[in-house]
Amino acid sequence: MTIDFIDPHVHFFALATGEYAWLKPDNPPFWKDKNLIHNDYCESDLSVNAPLNLSAYVHVEAGFDNENSLKEAEYWLEKATLPMTAMIFADLRVSPERFRQSLMLALALNDAPQQERNAFCAKPITGIRHIFDDETCNILSSDNTDENFSLLDELGLLFELQMNMANSNDFSALMKVLEKYPSLRLSVNHAGGFNGAHNRISTKELDAWCQNMRHLCELNNAYVKVSGFEMQDRNYTIDHVKRSLDDTLNVAGEGNVMFASNFPLTLFSATYSSYWQLVIEAIDSMGLKRSTLIHDTAKRCYFG
């Protein structure tokens, strides 16, 4: 029997066309093995072995052109043969006028005939990402961030939240903004920077992560992507995956959690197909419902 899944977090690279400053060896992140992913990647690289079947995916911005982030979405949408939606980069610190202009251009793309290619992909652009990480407080304290979040809420666009959810100071700054917009839709990247790395964080950090994630998910519009294990440990095992999933389900609830790959960074540790095979093995061994975690929640979040 075919196992259909949606991958809600992939990146493609077209090195001769895009900028990808972060992939260059002189720029952070300074991973010793970063050269392993310094290649072109596209939809055809998302190959899996039967009975796995990729039915749709979400392309998350990867630094193709941060001055005109729609170029990246348009480039890959034109090449897509499977249902695809894109998360574009948008800087929350720019003036509200400039931010609105960027979003209006994105929404205009949603109305283009291109979307007739597949009814499953009703919106080529679903939302934006602005990575917070170590810049969380700086971004959130910007004079324009609050108003720009308001516009995202108004337009019903999804925000990809990427930050360390164990950092309570950063989380407090985040909630001061989010509590003003309880209907704002969020998707937390890589389980809030946790990903089963119990051997790398203290009990205090784990407690903070649990408390903060639970508080965030009480907003009722927050989804969590369990992914990015290779970012914590290149040699992660199924036990890492199971423990991360268990902890995430405990704070977010089964209906709000989905697996993702973070391709091509998955290649630091495993092939694309073997990653998803490991995911299926982890889900089955825990007695959980496959379709919820690898298909249905992602469909509702990004394609609903």
From TrEMBL:
Listed GO MF terms: hydrolase activity
InterPro entries linked to this entry: Amidohydro-rel, Metal_Hydrolase, Metallo-dep_Lactonases
Location of the Amidohydrolase-related domain: 96-282
Family assignment from sequence similarity: Belongs to the metallo-dependent hydrolases superfamily.
Name assigned to this protein: Amidohydrolase-related domain-containing protein
Organism: Agaribacter marinus
